[in-house]
């Protein structure tokens, strides 16, 4: 567990020196990391069905006996950067019907609010080079209630809370083992592993710990017949598993003591799953499970604990540590050491413990160095958030062409995949085999474009090189579409996420003490392609008004914004148009920064100013009343639906729902500092000329003349509109909650009928889990607090404050007669967001809500859960429970 201690300057430098030497994805210290997924089953990559139902095509019940095509999964596991060799933990309590090899959860159809992990684990510590990693898994001592959890969810409706493992009684009286898995690298290819299990229950209980080492199956598909191997041996009196791989070479896993060693093959059990007459190999993926749980003596090779022998080659192995009784409060430990080459002559000698102690101390000092004077409670939240963020890295392999066409040695791909409408059929170029930061290791074990952009901001605090590499990766030719679109996520690469990558690139660039202009130029050139895609595809008529679909905010509208509208109606999206206005300003800022060293970028900066102004002007004029997205009566911004009638006139009306859609225009602002006008004369002349030629655009610029020079604020909303929208946002009867800005106004709590394009729809404020199945029903943008948009709003307020030097003041809360500066409003919003994870006067964290973590037991309350989103009334964490992707933004808010 993280602990504090005296700061040693030499050690403090050690992790930073490693990090400085690891500025590329193939750096030695990055070879091994937490790149193993928490879930591979139920993903699009593993779905070869005609229906496209990934959840039923490869269900949990197949995972123990069926080889994966594209990746692997495991508990508290690691793998090499290529995803070839994997090390994870399996457990058995003597009661479960199957070996516990992977986390369990419900599918989208099984859960009453979509897919949901039904286990408890926490990432407790880590460093950016993965020299130190630690995870805690909570394992029940009674039979795991797989069927009961499914039944509870099936009987619960969308109005009910999600049933959790703690609701079944399986963890009552603390009848569980806390299993802490720690990894400490003695070198880039020398990993010390310690597994410690503690019985917190009132009675002695048996426990079986089975560390497993296995190869991803790369040979059964008919594309590469080379097959790696591993053998288990107790020869010479020391137990080990030796692996051979064409790329990795030889690795040896030392196992302390004399456990039984078991070897099988990572091959599908065709007979058990599909009724085949025989299996392709004598041993299958579930061989170890069948031997341990069912006593099948023929399901795998066994090297007994007292024998001196070596197994035949296989591709999956385990060391079986059996503890007949672990007394209450007692801990048992096993130690492993994974080393490149033939092995370590003294694997568990003094160097093992000294490595663990040194890496733990270096982690203490690394995190202390990030915020040296931080309050210990706040520092602990930051450390947990960043540790979880660093654990989200996953090896993501997916070659869409092969997936669409099928593999030579497997059944032919369904004919439906040849349809132009088939999932990802227009992304045949996509070919990824990279480490990517995932939103959540179980619920979202695949990258999501806009999530990833937000991940890079806290990553820049601890690992700027990785943050930059991630942003560039999304724009590389093997991911980005040839037309310039950035892939959204594997469920449909062609979906559209908000264009926040230029914003993220600026944040990452500014976070470094020595800004990396080469990175900024590389990402800028790629984003030019993406910007062109947006303009050509989402503003097809050149009106400067943008569509985009759901844009990451799944169910925020009364209608599915990704579906085409009937009757020639078109949805003019307040958020899509505002996102593009902000995108223009972010690209302008990048171009200006680059122009300081290369004047050719001045022309491009001017282009983006003009595009921003074009969007700003159009947003005020379209529609039958010429009012644009702005509604004067409500002092707010709305989506609009419009259509052109046969006589050429435009019929339109607003979608009058106050939601985050109407707050996104606040994000479209940027300050031109005095250095712009001093250092970039060509840009300055063009801007002055534009204002002289188009005086009607002056409303979107605010000028200041100060002693240090001329300044300008470009903003989609003028001063009056800004104040009106902020009054809504900072109103506790609307958007302002005790823990951040809600995604929908609480004024809609009772629900309302909304007229949209000749139809009536009902929508209302829903503070917690979604009550609609739209977009799977596992997230909700109709009321909860979300960190990504809140973080952007905090920054928008600080931009406003910076320009006005503290003279822009607002009421906070609205109607309180308490005026604060925009900067103070930003600080207060950040404070409310941070408070989700800090103990209140009762010692409870609001984010824990009514979950088991809020109980008085320190075994629960010491662990912080970083959820996907938070109840708009209470702050309880909801949705995915390991969302240390964008929720890790809290680290930056804790220490601005």
TrEMBL record:
Gene3D superfamilies hit by this protein: 1.50.10.10
GO function term, MF aspect, one: Glc3Man9GlcNAc2 oligosaccharide glucosidase activity
SUPFAM superfamilies noted in UniProt: Six-hairpin glycosidases
UniProt record, GO biological process: oligosaccharide metabolic process
Domain Mannosylglycerate hydrolase MGH1-like glycoside hydrolase residue range list: 444-669, 715-884
Name of a matching Pfam family: MGH1-like_GH
Record InterPro entries: 6-hairpin_glycosidase_sf, 6hp_glycosidase-like_sf, Glycoside_hydrolase_63, MGH1-like_GH
Name by which UniProt lists this protein: Mannosylglycerate hydrolase MGH1-like glycoside hydrolase domain-containing protein
Organism of this sequence: Umezawaea tangerina
Highest classification ranks of the organism: Bacteria, Bacillati, Actinomycetota, Actinomycetes, Pseudonocardiales
């Amino acid at each position: 567990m993280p602990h504090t201690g005296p700061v040693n300057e030499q050690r403090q430098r050690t992790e930073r020196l490693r990090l400085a030497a690891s500025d590329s994805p193939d750096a030695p210290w990055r070879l091994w990391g937490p790149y193993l997924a928490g879930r591979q089953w139920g993903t699009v990559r593993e779905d070869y069905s005609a229906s496209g139902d990934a959840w039923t095509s490869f269900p949990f019940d197949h995972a123990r006996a069926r080889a994966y095509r594209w990746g692997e999964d495991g508990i508290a596991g690691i793998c090499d950067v290529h995803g070839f060799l994997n090390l994870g933990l399996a457990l058995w309590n003597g009661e479960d019907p199957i070996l516990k090899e992977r986390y369990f959860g419900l599918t989208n159809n099984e859960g009453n609010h979509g897919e949901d992990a039904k286990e408890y684990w926490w990432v407790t510590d880590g460093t950016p080079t993965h020299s130190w990693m630690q995870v805690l898994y909570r394992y029940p001592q009674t039979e795991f209630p797989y069927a009961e959890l499914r039944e509870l969810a099936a009987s619960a409706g969308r109005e009910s809370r999600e049933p959790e493992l703690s609701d079944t009684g399986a963890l009552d009286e603390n009848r569980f083992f806390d299993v802490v898995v720690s990894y400490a690298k003695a070198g880039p290819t020398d990993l010390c592993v310690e597994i410690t299990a503690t019985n917190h229950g009132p009675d002695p209980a048996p426990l079986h710990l089975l560390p497993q080492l296995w190869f991803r199956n790369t040979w059964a598909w008919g594309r590469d017949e080379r097959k790696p191997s591993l053998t288990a041996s107790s020869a010479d009196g020391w137990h080990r598993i030796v692996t051979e791989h064409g790329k990795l070479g030889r690795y040896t896993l030392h196992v302390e003591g004399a456990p039984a060693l078991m070897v099988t093959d990572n091959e599908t059990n065709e007979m058990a799953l599909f009724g085949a007459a025989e299996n392709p190999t004598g041993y299958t993926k579930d061989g170890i499970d069948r031997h341990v749980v069912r006593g099948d003596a023929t399901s795998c090779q066994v090297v007994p604990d007292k024998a001196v022998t070596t197994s035949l080659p296989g591709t999956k192995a385990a060391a079986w540590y059996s503890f007949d009784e672990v007394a209450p409060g007692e801990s048992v430990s096993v130690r492993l050491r994974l080393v490149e080459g033939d092995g370590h002559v003294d694997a568990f000698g003094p160097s093992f413990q000294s490595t663990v102690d040194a890496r733990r101390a270096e982690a203490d000092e690394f995190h202390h160095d990030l915020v040296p004077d931080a309050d210990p409670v706040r520092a602990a939240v930051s450390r947990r958030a960043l540790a979880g963020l660093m654990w989200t890295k996953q090896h993501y392999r997916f070659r869409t062409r092969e997936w669409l066409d099928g593999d030579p040695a497997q059944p032919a791909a369904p004919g439906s995949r040849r349809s132009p409408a088939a999932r990802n059929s227009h992304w045949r170029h996509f070919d990824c085999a990279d480490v990517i930061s995932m939103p959540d290791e179980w619920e979202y074990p695949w990258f999501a474009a806009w999530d990833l952009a937000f991940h890079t901001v806290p990553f820049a605090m601890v690992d700027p090189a990785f943050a930059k590499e991630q942003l560039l990766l999304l724009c590389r030719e093997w991911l980005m579409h040839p037309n310039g679109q950035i892939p959204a996520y594997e469920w449909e690469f062609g979906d559209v996420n908000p264009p926040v990558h230029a914003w993220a690139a600026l944040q990452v660039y500014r976070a470094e003490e020595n800004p990396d202009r080469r990175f900024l130029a590389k990402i800028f050139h790629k984003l030019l392609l993406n910007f062109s895609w947006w303009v050509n595809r989402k503003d097809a008529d050149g009106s400067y008004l943008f569509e985009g679909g759901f844009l990451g905010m799944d169910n925020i509208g009364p209608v599915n914004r990704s579906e085409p509208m009937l009757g020639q109606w078109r949805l003019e999206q307040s958020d899509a148009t505002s996102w593009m206005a902000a995108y223009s300003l972010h690209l302008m800022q990048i171009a200006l920064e680059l122009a300081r060293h290369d004047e050719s970028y001045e022309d491009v900066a001017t282009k983006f100013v003009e595009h921003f102004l074009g969007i700003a002007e159009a947003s005020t004029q379209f529609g039958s009343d010429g009012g644009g997205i702005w509604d004067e009566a409500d002092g707010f911004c709305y989506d609009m639906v419009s259509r052109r009638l046969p006589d050429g006139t435009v019929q339109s009306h607003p979608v009058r729902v106050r939601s985050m859609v109407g707050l996104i225009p606040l994000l479209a602002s940027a300050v031109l500092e005095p250095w712009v006008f001093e250092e970039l004369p060509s840009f300055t002349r063009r801007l002055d000329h534009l204002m002289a030629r188009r005086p009607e655009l002056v409303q979107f610029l605010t000028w200041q003349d100060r002693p240090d020079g001329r300044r300008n604020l470009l903003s989609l909303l003028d001063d009056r509109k800004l104040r009106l929208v902020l009054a809504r946002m900072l109103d506790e009867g609307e958007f302002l909650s005790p823990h951040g800005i809600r995604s929908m106004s609480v004024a809609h709590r009772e629900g309302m009928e909304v007229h949209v394009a000749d139809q009536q729809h009902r929508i209302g404020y829903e503070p917690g889990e979604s009550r609609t199945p739209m977009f799977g029903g596992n997230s909700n943008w109709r009321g909860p607090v979300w960190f990504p948009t809140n973080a952007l709003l905090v920054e928008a307020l600080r931009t406003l404050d910076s320009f006005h030097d503290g003279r822009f003041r607002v009421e906070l809360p609205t109607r309180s007669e308490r005026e604060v500066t925009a900067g103070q409003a930003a600080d207060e919003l950040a404070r409310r967001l941070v408070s989700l994870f800090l103990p209140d006067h009762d010692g409870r964290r609001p984010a824990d809500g009514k979950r088991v973590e809020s109980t008085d037991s320190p075994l629960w309350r010491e662990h912080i859960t970083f959820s996907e989103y938070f109840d708009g009334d209470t702050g309880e964490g909801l949705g995915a429970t390991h969302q240390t992707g964008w929720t890790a933004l809290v680290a930056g808010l804790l220490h601005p």
